[in-house]
Amino acid sequence: MKEKELQANEAQENTMNINADENAAGTNLLNDNIEESETDKLMNELNEQKDKYLRLAAEFDNFRKRTSKEKLELIQTAGKDVIISLLEVLDDIDRAEIQLNSDTDFALQQEGVKLIFNKLKSNLQSKGLKALESINTDFDIEKHEAVSEIAAPTEELKGKVIDEIVKGYYLNDKLIRFAKVVVGK
């Protein structure tokens, strides 16, 4: 039995010496544990970075979807304020139509139509619409579309706009419709 106790004591001393001496057998296991903890630390860091990347990518995707939805809504309702301002003119046109059917005084009807026309023009001008002045100006391909050419009545009208078939318009100083014109040659 004493032999068994001596062997047990020796085994216990060898186990205790593993942690005490670098040169003793078994210290490699301790170093492996240290390396594994560094590896675990790096893996955890990598996983955190992956998580951050995935969250950022998801956040960007949500941002892109949200902005495209807002853009679509803006496009759909872009003309809303113009339409609302034109509803008053439409109401006036409806009243004028009723008046045209019931009244025979042409002068009053003409005056009412002119009032409605002026109201429509002022509404559109308040929204930034401006007519392009073309008659007696030099022909400019950036602003005009030549429908035809006719002989100029005077020498100074050559290359100039003589008549305007369809008016051109600016919206907030940006040309939105070319004027269709007749040019003198």
Could you outline the blueprint of secondary structure elements for this entry?
Layout: H1 2-17, H2 27-76, H3 80-102, H4 106-126, E1 129-132, E2 144-150, E3 161-166, E4 168-171, E5 174-177, E6 179-184
Parallel strand pairs: 2-6
Antiparallel strand pairs: 1-4, 3-6, 4-5
Helix pairs in contact: 3-4
What's a concise summary of this model?
This protein is of the alpha+beta class and 185 residues long. 59% of the residues lie in helices and 17% in strands. The longest helix has 50 residues, at 27-76.
Q: Could you characterize the architecture of this molecule?
A:
The protein has 185 residues and is of the alpha+beta class. It has 3 domains: 28-78; 79-127; 130-185, Nucleotide Exchange Factor Grpe, Chain A, domain 2, CATH 2.30.22. The chain has 4 helices and 6 strands, in the order H-H-H-H-E-E-E-E-E-E. It has helices spanning 2-17, 27-76, 80-102, 106-126, and strands spanning 129-132, 144-150, 161-166, 168-171, 174-177, 179-184. Strands 1-4-5 form a 3-stranded antiparallel sheet. A 3-stranded mixed sheet has the order 2-6-3, with no helix packed on it. It is elongated. The chain starts with a helix and ends with a strand.
Largest sheet: 3 strands, antiparallel
CATH architectural category of the largest domain:
Roll
> Helical element count?
4
Which percent band covers the strand fraction? 15-25%
Q: Could you name the ranges where pLDDT drops below 50 across 5 or more consecutive residues? A: none
Order of helices and strands: HHHHEEEEEE
Number of strands: 6
CATH class of the largest domain: Mainly Beta
The tally of domains stands at 3
Structural class: alpha+beta
Write the CATH homologous superfamily of the largest domain.
Head domain of nucleotide exchange factor GrpE
- Computed Rg: 44 Å
Query: In whole angstroms, how far apart are the ends?
Result: 132 Å
How would the global form be characterised? elongated
Mean pLDDT across the residues is 83
Q: What is the CATH fold-level name of the largest domain?
A: Nucleotide Exchange Factor Grpe, Chain A, domain 2
